[in-house]
């Protein structure tokens, strides 16, 4: 593996940089997929919800490579995955580290693969968002390469391919075991373990030692193919569990040893199961598109046993992959695969019924929440639309468009990287382009 190091400046600058990067994670950091709690909600306040007509980024970086990886941000340092196409048609995947001014700190190659490994017109490149913990960075490439890097230097610490090491089976189009769109899961770091779902007959979920990458356990009772969803942590009845949405069902495995504790038949499809489940209390909400719908599951403990009861299934929400958020008992997100066939929805979590729908004011896109607002990044044209997070209706407060669209689009290219807010900054990616905006109210 090759490491591309940015030419160093003064020695004092380098020392200061390393000190800043090893500082304790700030409350406003966004160190992993969907933020600190994996729920796409930032606890920050004092953020802009309106924007001037000429709203400009404080910096932009235009060599991120192709891919849909959103940045993980710690102490204003941004980390993301990308890929470059070589002259022979092969692809090289890498991780980028950018300093608070948007300058490249390091670039580490992590994987190589040939064109055509993914049966898709949506473009090659990584989909996974890295996780930052304990001075390490963990990521998953589009061809199933799971790896750990040193956060400060980019040095490769360990690497394993999910198919070769754990018998991974990735569900493809129409339920076929093929790498249709590439591995998309974002690894979960929990204590001394990194959790990933390779899927397959050897066991759907694995826990690896974060320092060595060695296998700690594999959940052999759960053998579903993996989906494109990411794992979340839950505590049901005082038992820590990992909740996974596979290609076939929702499941909970014990964090201590991977034992399968419960399963539930929630709406899934034979194409792509993508959104991350939402855990709230002893309930789990799931959704996926291709007209599958959504569901709410209640998990209960009876002695050493767990049961999972499906409270409802309906099609009020069929989210493709822009995600949904839960705020004050209401689910917000886009239902439907395209702008022409969908709408923004506010759904009551308890009943599953629609509170409001809006299909004309803003196109389809991804969503995250902060400071009482929803920040929606549209997939067709790269517009950031800000609306109030309220059950009273769709109330837009402001919008702006990223200043440039990528020239590295796939044939069917979309803006699919999730928006990220960290320490008063908003990060928006379109393939090789990353824009950083200051959205503090006093800026």
UniProtKB/TrEMBL annotation:
Residues 95-356 form the Pyrrolo-quinoline quinone repeat domain. It comes from Gimesia panareensis. This is Outer membrane protein assembly factor BamB. SUPFAM superfamilies: Quinoprotein alcohol dehydrogenase-like (SSF50998). It comes from the Bacteria. InterPro entries: PQQ_b-propeller_rpt (IPR018391), PQQ_rpt_dom (IPR002372), Quinoprotein_ADH-like_sf (IPR011047), WD40/YVTN_repeat-like_dom_sf (IPR015943). The gene is bamB_5.
């Amino acid at each position: 593996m090759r490491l591309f190091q940015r030419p160093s400046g003064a020695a004092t600058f380098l020392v200061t940089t390393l000190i800043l990067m090893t500082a304790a994670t700030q409350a406003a950091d966004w160190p992993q997929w969907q933020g600190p709690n994996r729920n796409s909600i930032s606890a920050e306040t004092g953020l802009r919800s309106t924007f001037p007509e000429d709203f400009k980024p404080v910096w932009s970086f235009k060599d991120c490579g192709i891919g849909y990886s959103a940045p993980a941000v710690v102490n204003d340092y941004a980390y993301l995955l990308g890929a470059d196409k070589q002259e022979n048609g092969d692809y090289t995947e890498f991780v980028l580290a950018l300093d608070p001014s948007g300058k490249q700190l390091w670039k580490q190659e992590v994987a190589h693969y040939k064109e055509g490994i993914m049966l898709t017109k949506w473009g090659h490149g990584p989909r996974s968002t890295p996780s930052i913990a304990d001075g390490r960075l963990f990521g998953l490439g589009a061809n199933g390469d799971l790896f750990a890097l040193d956060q400060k230097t980019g040095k490769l610490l360990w690497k394993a391919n999910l198919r070769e090491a754990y018998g991974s089976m990735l569900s493809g189009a129409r339920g076929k075991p093929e790498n249709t769109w590439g591995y998309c899961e974002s690894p979960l770091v929990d204590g001394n373990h990194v959790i990933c779902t390779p899927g397959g007959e050897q066991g759907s979920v694995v826990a690896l030692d974060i320092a060595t990458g060695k296998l700690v356990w594999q959940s052999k009772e759960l053998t579903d193919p993996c989906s494109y969803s990411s794992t979340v942590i839950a505590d049901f009845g005082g038992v820590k569990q990992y909740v996974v949405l596979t290609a076939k069902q929702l499941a909970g495995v014990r964090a201590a040893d991977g034992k399968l504790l419960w399963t539930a038949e929630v709406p899934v499809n034979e194409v792509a199961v993508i959104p991350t489940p939402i855990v709230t209390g002893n309930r789990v909400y799931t959704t996926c598109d291709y007209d599958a719908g959504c569901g709410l599951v209640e998990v209960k403990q009876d002695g050493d046993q767990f049961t999972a009861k499906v409270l409802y299934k309906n099609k009020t929400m069929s989210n493709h992959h822009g995600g949904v958020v839960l705020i004050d008992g209401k689910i917000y997100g886009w239902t439907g695969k395209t702008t022409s066939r969908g709408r923004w929805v506010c759904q009551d979590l308890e009943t599953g019924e629609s509170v409001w729908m809006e299909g004309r004011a803003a196109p389809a896109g991804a969503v995250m929440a902060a400071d009482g607002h929803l920040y929606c990044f549209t997939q067709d044209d790269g517009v950031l639309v800000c609306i109030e997070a309220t059950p009273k209706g769709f109330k837009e407060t402001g919008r702006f468009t990223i200043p440039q669209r990528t020239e590295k689009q796939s044939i069917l290219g979309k803006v699919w990287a999730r928006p990220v807010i960290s320490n008063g900054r908003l990060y928006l990616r379109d393939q090789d382009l990353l824009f950083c905006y200051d959205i503090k109210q006093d800026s």
